Amino acid sequence: MTRCEIDLDRFDYNIERVKELAKESRVMAVIKADAYGHGAAVLMRRLFSHGIRYFGVANIGEAMELRRTFHRGNILVLGYTPPHLMHYASDYGVALTVFTEEQAEALNKVGQPASIHIKLNTGLNRLGFGTDAQAAKAIARIAKMENITIEGIFSHLAQGSEEDDMSQYEAFTAMTGMLEGMGVNVGYRHISDGIALGKYEGMHLDMVRPGAMFYGYGSGVKPIMSLKSQIIHIHK
After folding, report:
1. If we measure between CA atoms, which residue out of 131, 133, 222, 142 comes closest to residue 169?
2. Helix (H) or strand (E) holding 75
3. Which residue among 71, 81, 205, 234 has its CA within the 20 to 30 Å range from the CA of 178?
């Protein structure tokens, strides 16, 4: 019989290590894919007991599943949510990622108050608004929609090189500065994942988003998962 064991003492240690690195920035714990296979429902409660109040998941289904088991804390869906599922965000009290004006319009038409985080594409080239004046105007229009509140704005570092990361960071802060100059309250600004948390102290901004670091992958943390099996027979 083989079993998987999660060392909660090590997990506690890792949480405090992350908080130490984050300093004054808020921490969003990324617990997508069942906390990378470590058991999101249990670990979410553990994180909350250490003062973590923000959690990131991959899709609306994960958010709903966690909300059914734990009613506290703020959950952000980091990925895409189809329009026909957007009403669940308000029903379950979770925030959605928005990266096009059309998405925001669809969410606004649901007719219920909704919190969102705007995603910017600063160089990873997956999803996100651009960082030009046209994109800023679109985001400003979203900020005025009746049923939508912008809770945060974020991007992802490609981490190809330190120079590229800095270029992305500068594009991100320039865009958020442009939006604030237009009167848009962008909320929490966040671009650093667990790797950037330990590597770029100057990029922490208002919030950081470590994920694998909680589970023991990164600088100064301890792996929390082990696989153990029972020997049932030795043949010579």
Report:
1. 131
2. strand 74-77
3. 81
Query: How many of the other CB atoms lie within 10 Å of CB of 60?
Result: 22
Taking each helix axis from N to C terminus, what angle separates 133-143 and 101-109, rounded to the nearest 10 degrees?
A: 10
DSSP 173: H
Own/partner long-range contacts of 180-185 (Cβ < 8 Å, ≥24 apart) = 182/136, 182/140, 183/140, 184/139, 184/140, 184/143, 184/150, 185/143, 185/150
The DSSP symbol for 120 reads B
The candidate with the shortest Cα–Cα distance to 12, out of 40, 56, 48, 41, is 48
Percent of the chain with pLDDT over 70: 100
**Average pLDDT for 101-116:** 98
Q: Is pLDDT above 90 for 85?
A: yes
3-state DSSP assignment of residue 192: strand
**Position 235, amino acid:** H
- Tell me how far apart the alpha carbons of residues 179 and 41 are, in angstroms, rounded to a whole number: 36
Average pLDDT over residues 24-50: 98
